[in-house]
């Protein structure tokens, strides 16, 4: 079992590589997590290096395409640090980013805490705790040079490939009356059009949100009021390069965009 010193050391190595935009082959054996519990403990320590309060949470690998992209067999949670958030319409640096993809996502901001409890949260429980729905774009990356071979435990420790995040304005539409499963965001990139689908997000973005609440519940973590949860890509990750403008039109739910340099 990893002790607190090794957890802190592994977290510091991953965070330092993120800040420097550099990559590593893998954590040394003595620091490598052997299960999801140790992996999440390393991830949690990343918060100690953050410059502000936690902005929210991401869910990696909620779609089959996302799972294939990092070679894992199911979803995993990651932290969105406040300093990684880019304003809607802003510009994201490509420096140090080797994954070089962007993902259109449905994101929810919470209006109530969901603390740990014995019983699992239902989708209805979680939706009742939501304040607003937003279009969003995630720009993932990994600190591992070969993230495909890193394995789920190291990927979780590596903050589930969290890197940069763009949050659009809250929708003014009655999103609770919509079937998010059938929502089809349109993505414009480099003169081409792509179509996402809500169903790609663990079958339903609302189900993905409930998954996140229950993953945190089992870890003894409260999903807090004001935190944002982005639920995973609704389209296979799209390659990006400097000079690109990535625009995602979620129809009545709004738009979000980001440029790259």
Automatic annotation (TrEMBL):
GO terms for cellular component: cytoplasm. Signal peptide: none annotated. InterPro entries: Fumarylacetoacetase_C_sf (IPR036663), Hydratase-Decarb/MhpD_sf (IPR050772). GO terms for molecular function: 2-oxopent-4-enoate hydratase activity. It comes from Bradyrhizobium sediminis. This is Hydratase. The lineage of its organism: Bacteria, Pseudomonadati, Pseudomonadota, Alphaproteobacteria, Hyphomicrobiales.
